[in-house]
Structure formats: C-alpha cells, structure tokens
Design a protein that fits this description.
The chain is 44% helix and 11% strand. It has 420 residues and is α/β, with parallel strands linked by helices. The protein has a six-stranded parallel beta sheet with strand order 10-9-8-11-12-13, with helices on both faces. A three-stranded parallel beta sheet has the order 1-2-3, with helices on one face. Strands 4-5 form a two-stranded antiparallel sheet.
Length: 420
C-alpha cells in the first residue's frame, strides 16, 4: 500500500495476545522510521482489549464471529472454517504474516517429520538445528495434534511463503544463526527482533513501558510495590502466559514447589485459573513469601532487580523477553511451540533448565523446588546466570544502531519507501 507521502503497512495480527504484542512493537518501530501503520485485529478480539495502543491506527476485520471469536465458534475447526469463508482475502495475508520461525513446520510440510511421529522417543536431526530433538520436543500441534485443521493451517503457511518478498522473524541472528542461515537459502527471511519496547534495550530512549494492547488489566502498582520491598535477585516470577490452562493437580504441585523452595515468588494466576489454587493457599501459604496476581506488566517485572528466576511456560514472547532482559529460566512447557523453545533454552542457549514431568505428565513439587534452587543458588546455576547476561547483551546489540536486526529493519524500510 502507498500514500503520496510514505509507505503504508497494513498489519494483520493473529488474534492472540502473544501475536499482537510483538506485531505492535514492530509496527511502532516502523512508524518511528516514517512508515504509516494500520493494525487490523479481528472485531471480536478488539472488543476484548483492556488497553489500546495510542500512536497507531486500527481497522478491525471480521472473522465471522464478531461477538465472541473462537469462544463463540466453540472449536478451532469451526472457527477456522468460517474465517476462511468470511475473510478469505485477509486470511491469505494473515497467514503470510504469521510468525514463521518454525523450521519444524517446514519439515512436516516436506515429509521429514511424519504426522504425528510414530515412535515415542524417536530422535530427529533437522538441518539448521544445532541439537538433536526428540518427539517430545516437537511442537504439540505436530506431536499430539488436537485439530487437523489447525495443523493444516500451520503447515500450509509454507505453501504461500514462496510468494512473499520478505519474511520478518521476531528473533535475532546471533540467537539462531544456523537455522536462519539454513532457512534463508529457501525463503527471504530476515530477523527483526526482539520486538520489545525500545527503552528496555536502550535506557536513553523514551518509550512506552508496556506493549499497550492487552487482553488483561495489569495489577501494576500492587506488584511493583511488592517487588520494591524484596531483596535483589530473590524472587521467582511465575507465569504461564495468556492461554495455558493447568490441571488442578499441577497447580497444587506448583504451589507446594514454590513454598518449599523457600524463595519469594510473584505468581500470575489468571482469574479463570484461580479456582484451581489449593484451598487457603493465598491466605496461609503464600502470604509471607508470595504474591499472587491476575496479570502483571511482565516486562517491568522481568526488568526488576529483585527478580532472580522466571518459571515460564516458554511461550515465544516470554522466552525472548527473558533473553532480552537477562533472566534465567525454569521451564514448564505446556503445548504449541513451547516444548521446542524449552529445548533451545536448556540445551542450546543454556539459559535455563526444564522441570521434567512424571509419567502422568505432572511436574512434581520436588522437581520444581530443585530446579528453582539450581538456577538461583547452585554452582551449575552460575553458568546459566552467566549465559543470561551474555544473551541480554547480544539481544541489545542486535537492535542497536547497525546491529543485525536494526540493519534488516532499515533495509526493509528503504525497500518499502522505494515501492511507495
Ligand atoms: N504477559 C503480560 N503479563 C502477564 C503475563 C504475560 O504482559 O502477567 C505478556 C508477556 O509479556 C508476553 C505475552 O503476555 O508478551 C505472552 O506471550 P507468550 O508468547 O509468552 O505466551 P502465550 O500467551 O502466547 O501463551
């Protein structure tokens, strides 16, 4: 799209919190370089937003369920089918704009990984991945597909990628050199991340402190005041992002694991998850050492000097935010790309440790306690904490003027300007 004055980008975020956040930050960066931005969320998604971004314009599109989106549809299958019918034109653009980091979906498309993988502990070596992965490290959409249409949508992204002029990835070159080099032989891929507000990467820059387009209302004062009272590097920050639902048994194990670790903890429990907390946990067990809140300003929390460890589901945004702010991780992946992100965090970037599940799929309290202590206290944790500092520095460098992501963004903007 173009105007007489400057390039104009229409941004089509997939209607989930974890997609809106990086898209919005990238949009702001483009805007700061003179590109006009219009963001196009679905109407149903826009209705649920508790915070709206100020400097960009918004044009909502229809997914066929303008009142309740996915919830109204009742299942991915029904939702996606209707979205295809109603928003066919925008859908093809939307799919191209989806985050295309996942080497793995490409190999499903090309038949290297069969769907679903047959052997439980099958070892898989993929070009561009610097470690061997097992079936359990593969995204859950592939290893345990719950909806054929969702897998089809993810895999089909690759059928359109050949037509794209640019594929922009929310990562940075130094973090994923091998896979980016390998994929760049096939697709015009460029890294443009981490797409977090610039002020977290360079203190001299004025910027918004948060993403500014949130589905939940953050309890900012309550949690920041509490963090201000805690000693340096003493707090475990716990969050499972905007979607994951834990089993009540897992919530109980986690609660006891945190309590038994004897560390201070800040735990984000969304209001729909709160009934699963053990009885009296909030009043009796958590009151001395912990604070449980329904949503927080995560970047401000991760940046806070009192935070010593992030117990995370390893959603891609949370992972990249922890990397950018140098916070070591204990990981408890739930679904989607989280098992793969966990594998990289532990075995490639060596910036965290996975808390392993038992045969019932539950991470037990002893394991949680042990992992937290390892990351925060022990000798082995020194390496992890050292690597966290290293990756933070490299993330900053990538976005700094002349850094790998900054150069790609500059190149993209100049191209846009010439097209316009
Ligand atoms: N987040 C937040 N406050 C919270 C928990 C999460 O602002 O209390 C943000 C977090 O910073 C991240 C996003 O929500 O940008 C979650 O995205 P992610 O990809 O980590 O997980 P998803 O929600 O997609 O599972």
């Amino acid at each position: 799209m173009s105007t007489t004055h400057k390039a104009h980008c229409l941004i089509l975020p997939y209607p989930l919190q974890g997609h809106i956040n990086p898209m919005l930050q990238f949009s702001k960066r483009l805007q700061s370089k003179g590109v006009k931005i219009t963001i196009a969320p679905t109407k149903s998604f826009l209705k649920t937003m508790k915070e709206l971004p100020t400097p960009v314009s918004i044009e909502a599109i229809s997914d066929g369920y303008d009142d309740g989106g996915l919830d109204e549809a009742g299942s991915y299958a029904v939702y996606i089918t209707r979205f295809k019918e109603v928003g066919l034109d925008t859908l093809s653009q939307l799919i191209q704009k989806l985050r295309n980091l996942d080497n793995i979906y490409y190999h499903v498309d090309k038949g290297v990984i069969k769907l679903p993988p047959t052997q439980v502990d099958e070892e898989i070596l993929l070009p561009g991945l610097s470690c061997t992965i097992e079936t359990s490290d593969v995204p859950s959409f592939v290893s345990t597909p719950e909806s054929d249409i969702l897998v089809e949508m993810l895999v089909n992204q690759f059928s359109n990628l050949q037509k794209a002029d640019w594929i922009l990835i929310n990562s940075f070159y130094e973090l994923e050199k091998e896979v980016i080099d390998w994929m760049a032989n096939i697709y015009p891929m460029k890294t443009i991340g981490p797409t977090i507000p610039s002020m977290y990467l360079d203190k001299r820059l004025p910027d918004d402190k948060e993403y500014g387009m949130s589905l939940f209302k953050p309890m900012a004062n309550e949690c920041l005041n509490w963090l201000n009272r805690q000693p340096i590097s003493s707090v475990v920050y716990v969050s499972f992002g905007s979607m994951a639902k834990l089993e009540a048994e897992q919530m109980e194990e986690l609660a006891w694991g945190l309590k038994n670790s004897n560390k201070n903890f800040l735990w984000v429990v969304r209001s729909t998850e709160e009934p699963k907390l053990p009885k009296n946990f909030l009043d009796e067990l958590a009151s001395e050492k912990g604070l449980v809140i329904s949503w927080c300003p995560q970047l401000q929390v991760l940046e806070h000097k009192s935070i010593g460890c992030f117990l995370t589901h390893c959603g891609w945004n949370s992972t990249l935010e922890a990397i950018s702010l140098g916070v070591p991780m204990v990981t408890m992946p739930q679904w989607s790309d989280q098992p793969t992100n966990t594998k990289l965090v532990q075995d490639v970037w060596e910036m965290g440790i996975k808390a392993k599940q038992d045969e019932k799929g539950i991470v037990r309290r002893e394991v949680i306690e042990e992992c937290i202590k390892l990351v925060m206290e022990e000798e082995k944790g020194n390496v992890i904490r050292g690597n966290a500092k290293k990756w933070k520095e490299l993330a900053r460098n990538a976005m700094d003027e002349g850094g790998s992501s900054d150069k790609n963004i500059e190149e993209f903007v100049s191209k846009l300007m010439t097209i316009s």
